[in-house]
Amino acid sequence: MVKEIMANSLPTGPKGIRFLFGEFVHYDYFFGYIGTLLHAESGIQHIHIMENEFWGKMLFINNCLQFTERDEFIYHEALVHIPVQASPKGKIKKVLICGGGDFGASRELLKYPEIEEVIIVDIDPDVPKLIKKYFPSLLPENPKDPRLKLITADAYEMVKKFTREKKNFDLIIIDTTDPDVSVEGGKTQELSHALFAEEFHRMLLEMSPEGIVVQQCGTPFTMKDILKGTYQIFKKVYPENEIYCYRADVPSFGGDNAYLMRFPFEDPKTPKWEELENTLYYNHEVHRASFGLPKFWKEVLE
Amino acid sequence: MVKEIMANSLPTGPKGIRFLFGEFVHYDYFFGYIGTLLHAESGIQHIHIMENEFWGKMLFINNCLQFTERDEFIYHEALVHIPVQASPKGKIKKVLICGGGDFGASRELLKYPEIEEVIIVDIDPDVPKLIKKYFPSLLPENPKDPRLKLITADAYEMVKKFTREKKNFDLIIIDTTDPDVSVEGGKTQELSHALFAEEFHRMLLEMSPEGIVVQQCGTPFTMKDILKGTYQIFKKVYPENEIYCYRADVPSFGGDNAYLMRFPFEDPKTPKWEELENTLYYNHEVHRASFGLPKFWKEVLE
Fold this sequence. Notes:
The structure is a homodimer. Chain A is built from 9 helices and 12 strands. By secondary structure, chain A is of the alpha/beta class. In chain A, the strands form 2 sheets. In chain A, strands 8-7-6-9-10-12-11 form a 7-stranded mixed beta sheet, with helices on both faces. In chain A, strands 1-2-3-4-5 form a 5-stranded antiparallel beta sheet. In chain A, helix 5 runs parallel beside helix 6 and helix 6 (198-207) packs across helix 7.
């Protein structure tokens, strides 16, 4: 019965009245919300948009919270500014976002005039459509920025194609749902599953041998296996001395989120670009701090 | 009605059966748990001990979570090892803990053979009693360590007395409930209230002019005013260039917890003692990182 609740904790209607809903972290621990349903849709993923006074609007995919209006800035700024600012100044010109159909990562990237091209490849056409309607604050400052291109496709297949076309990226951001969180109970795997696999990373390395790769790896305190498993894959594909882990506390995720990075340059812990005025989370101080990991994280990364 | 739930979210009996209970962060956002009640008691504070598979045993005071068995090590290690290791090596010999009747801070302090005396002054006799029964893992390795003294008294009054007696401490740890969280709805103030006040800090400074003072300041993302207000008080009492803020992600608190420190020596960001073997969170790497604050925290500390 608890599994039933886990799989079906979000209402599908009617809209506009107040619901009590929740997201289970474990079968006996959950984040509970009182709020209203704005949108429920099942395309290739189940998407719910809820609204709650504390968090603002919230996007759920397959019953898992993806972000809230109130703290998405932390997740997205850490995802983008750390790899960009770690790189040699001006080095990042072409960026591929695998997933990221919510535009949050592209919004951050396009703050840099040095970045010339940002391609989002997201498999789900509903996500960008719903963001434009419900979450305008996630869009880039200029939503028609000519440097931005959105492709609705499977990033796995698209990377194959880009590789054949000899396309090259300075930075590849993998900004997806957590893999396999709904495997239990006979559910199908998350669409993001393939983007955590060894084969995908081998393709990225072939496509962009000198590219920086950053992948969000969930919140290790509650979902240790995602970071552990992804780290093992990074170690198989990339030189071990080019692999770094960093973290950012995203309160709606319940604490520190982990990011793994393949970084083939010197000293990612030192930011090398100028600080931006228009960030809310990122500064050079938190950049350096992000790489300092607690002892129990080190044990996951062995 | 929501306020009623907030004030009364924990069951008082019967013990041993499974309850759904929660802690409200905001009136429309809460942490929900399924678990069993082990103990409920109203002495000078309302104390509940619940058990839940994910978190283990959990201690609530006045309906607010104080710690869980699963992640209290993060809160306590950050509270203790950062001020100790920041200080000149061997400098910390005598320590006063105001609050801290759960023994967690004393457990960490007594790991250092250099520390000669640890005095806990907690107002509530029920807390140490219940810890001994339900949370033996919070006790010092040697629970009868002769360096440890527990005094059941109001820390405010005790500091007055210590000052008259010319007692001096190298480190003063203020390890209490969050102040005033249950003021709403006509409730009385938390007992910890006075330990966040200017007058209390003036007494600490008089008692130990060269003492390090560290105070837990809640989780600023959800309770910004505690850090902001305490920082204003620190600025009134201590020289501004001796005030530092650091953080540690305590997942059961919903993210980064803040600590304010009055530190009258050089460079607290550099640890100066040897790393201990027997910690789970603390290492020198996380010590340095703890002082790196996100941009939106900086705005709270102005």
